[in-house]
Amino acid sequence: MQSGSRYRDREAGLSLIEILVGVSIMATVALAVTLSLRPERTPLQAASDALAARLQTASQEAIISGQPVGLVIEEFGRRYAFYRYVDQRWWPLSDHPALRARLLPETLRLQVRDGMMIARTDTDETAIPVIWFDPAGLTEPFALSLEGEAGRVELAWQVDGALIRRVGL
């Protein structure tokens, strides 16, 4: 009779293997939940990420094509587009998927903070970029500000071609 009671005592608890399997299953579920709960991006963050990527692409396009590529800001900062300088005229890059014209969300505005500003006459219908990327890679430093209800993000182009992002200035 004693051997039967000893056997029941050993079976009453959980073995170390069973505990480890349970912990590993819980860890796997916790990892899956953590990966699926990505932080929500605001429209300002999404637009600034997209603009930063497009500025880098425009710089590379100017170098690859050997022709200047410029940024035109339209509709009081609600819209921007990239243009290429060919035959002494700026032409929109509507055929380039990354550099075609973009409309910002209603609450966001794009402004030039530091860069070359060019006055345009009323008779001139040609869009003139406020910033352009040199085909030799010698683009002048500039700063753009993307502002919205959630704050402000400044994108600053450096002499060495690096793009620095400053949030909430």
In short:
The chain is α+β, with helices and mostly antiparallel strands and about 170 residues long. It contains 3 helices and 9 strands.
Supply the key terms.
about 170 residues; alpha+beta; minor pseudopilin epsh fold; five-stranded antiparallel beta sheet; 9 strands; about 30% helix; elongated
CATH superfamily of the largest domain: minor pseudopilin epsh domain
The total domain count is: 2
Q: What's the β-strand tally?
A: 9
Order of helices and strands: HHHEEEEEEEEE
Which class of secondary structure composition applies to the elements? alpha+beta
Multimeric organization:
single chain
First-residue to last-residue Cα separation: 80 Å
**What characteristic shape results from the CA principal axes?**
elongated
- CATH domain class name of the largest domain: Alpha Beta
What is the count of DSSP helices, taking H or I runs of 4+ residues? 3
Secondary structure elements and pairings:
Blueprint: H1 2-11, H2 16-36, H3 43-65, E1 69-74, E2 79-86, E3 89-92, E4 102-103, E5 109-114, E6 131-133, E7 142-148, E8 151-157, E9 163-167
Antiparallel strand pairs: 1-2, 1-6, 2-3, 2-4, 5-7, 7-8, 8-9
